[in-house]
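Whiteboard transcription, Tuesday session. T.W. wrote the structure tokens on the left side:
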């Protein structure tokens, strides 16, 4: 039986960073639907080719494609201990699909964490985000010092295609319309915990760990 933790939050809320830290701490896999889709698109797989147009527009890839992809990942050996879901679910169709999947597989939803970050901060985080073409490191040219080259290896930095201003506005709108309502749903189910996502990544990580420790105590 695998344990599943859902990390919800707007684009730029820090889900990727926090999912990575949390997965390492718990020896779970990090299952980022955005990263998997980007990899599929880069590799030119059938799934990647279907997903590409949606991603370039900043709209959601259809639920059936996403659900099948998530289940294939949950089957992988690296996810057998548990999974931190990053960027999924993002629609009510995906919530229902995930519920059904968890029930059928005998997995357990350990918690749903919503990372709260002000809109101003989200825009600064996304518009400054860069990826190093040399080592793949992430950095932020608006929030960190270090200029336009990678601090780790000196490589060139590029902006993710969907981090450009036109697409960012669309992604935030899609989040408000389709994903933000999931917060109310998980709240009604008594499964949601809000986490302050402002501050340094290590601070936010500590907040998440204390929330999960509390959850664990409540259940034991
Ligand atoms: P992200 O890196 O999580 O912001 O995802 C980048 C893009 O991939 C999104 O703007 C969507 O086009 C697509 N995507 C990622 N996860 C999902 C999902 N769970 N459902 C639908 N589309 C997704």
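and on the right, the sequence the group agreed on:
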């Amino acid at each position: 039986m695998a344990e599943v933790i859902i990390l919800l939050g707007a684009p730029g809320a820090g889900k990727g960073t926090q999912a990575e830290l949390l997965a390492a701490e718990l020896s779970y896999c990090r299952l980022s639907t955005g990263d998997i889709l980007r990899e599929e698109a880069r590799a030119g797989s059938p799934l990647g080719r279907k997903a590409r147009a949606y991603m370039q527009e900043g709209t959601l890839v259809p639920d059936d494609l996403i659900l099948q992809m998530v289940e294939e990942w949950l089957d992988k050996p690296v996810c057998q201990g548990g999974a931190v879901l990053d960027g999924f679910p993002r629609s009510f169709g995906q919530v229902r699909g995930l519920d059904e999947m968890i029930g059928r597989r005998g997995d357990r939803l350990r918690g749903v964490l919503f990372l709260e970050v002000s809109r101003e901060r989200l825009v600064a985080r996304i518009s400054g985000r860069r990826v190093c073409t040399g080592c793949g490191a992430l950095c932020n040219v608006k929030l960190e010092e270090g200029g336009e080259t990678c601090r780790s290896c000196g490589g060139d930095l590029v902006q993710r295609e969907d981090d450009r201003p036109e697409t960012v506005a669309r992604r935030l709108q899609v989040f408000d319309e389709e994903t933000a309502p999931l917060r109310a749903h998980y709240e009604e189910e008594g499964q949601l915990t809000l986490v302050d996502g402002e501050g340094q990544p290590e601070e936010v990580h500590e907040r998440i760990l204390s929330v999960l420790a509390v959850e664990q105590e409540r259940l034991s």
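Someone added at the bottom: The chain has a mean pLDDT of 93.
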